[in-house]
Amino acid sequence: MKLNIIDNRPPPVESNLPKHLGGHEFETHIDEGAVDKFCELVGVPETVLDIGCGPGGMVELFKKRGYNVTGIDGDFEVERPEDIKDNVVIHDYHEGPWLPEKPADLGWSVEFVEHVNKEYMFNFLQTFQQCKYIIMTHALPGQPGWHHVNCQPPEYWVGAMDACGLFVDVELTNAIREASTMKERYIRQMGLVFKNGRL
Predict the structure, then answer these.
(1) Which of 163, 56, 164 shows the shortest CA–CA distance to 108?
(2) 159 forms bridges with which residues in the sheet?
(3) Which of 11, 30, 95, 146 makes the best surface tag, with the fewest CB within 10 Å?
């Protein structure tokens, strides 16, 4: 008898990427509702960092809204829309931190943190520290996915962020979860919003 095995990996393609990159599976999870609610409750961000931007769908959305946006991602092979290529920095957080020239009003990091080995997470946390607010998601323990190596409960991320001066905003988290229009459940179930206590 032959069994079909589902391992939640992207189909094999020829690639020069290191194994830990490319977890986006060529898709961006767009969430206009969460962004609209953030703008309503906090204000329209002038500057945005999309940390782990993948193909750049949210970078494109932020740019169309007139925000000064920079996407950061290690995937140097994925095709991104021509109009955002100058807005994307290729950077692998396994190699070290990446810091913007100036702090950003908002950091957006959806379906990213679970793909970075724990030993390298302070590299992206240093980027998070350069944002006044962070909207992020995380994968839960046991959640399948390509190179899911740091799947943690929300308390873990609240503690890690707290140690970096980023404090969970429960009211804003709940509001953004309720406002999410993303097709996937990521913001609705695992979305967290943090405010920087130093900026």
Answers:
(1) 56
(2) none
(3) 11
Q: What is the 3-state secondary structure (H, E, C) of the chain?
A: CCCCCCCCCCCCCCCCCCCCCCCCCCCCCCCHHHHHHHHHHCCCCCEEEEECCCCCHHHHHHHHCCCEEEEEECCCCCCCCHHHHHHEEECCCCCCCCCCCCCEEEEEECCCHHHCCHHHHHHHHHHHCCEEEEEECCCCCCCCCCCCCCCCCHHHHHHHHHHCCEEECHHHHHHHHHHCCCCCCHHHHHCEEEEECCC
Query: Six-digit token pair at 169?
Result: 């905003």
Task: Give the distance from CA 22 to its chain's centroid.
Answer: 13
Q: pLDDT band at 14, cuts 50/70/90?
A: low
Return the structure tokens found at 26.
């060529």
Query: Given this model, what pLDDT does residue 121 score?
Result: 97
Domains of the chain (ranges, CATH numbers):
41-196 (3.40.50.150)
68: exposed, middle or buried (C-beta count within 10 Å: 0-12, 13-18, 19+)?
middle
Examine the pLDDT at 94 and tell me if it is beyond 50: yes
User: Sorting pLDDT into bands at 50, 70 and 90, what band is 18?
Assistant: low
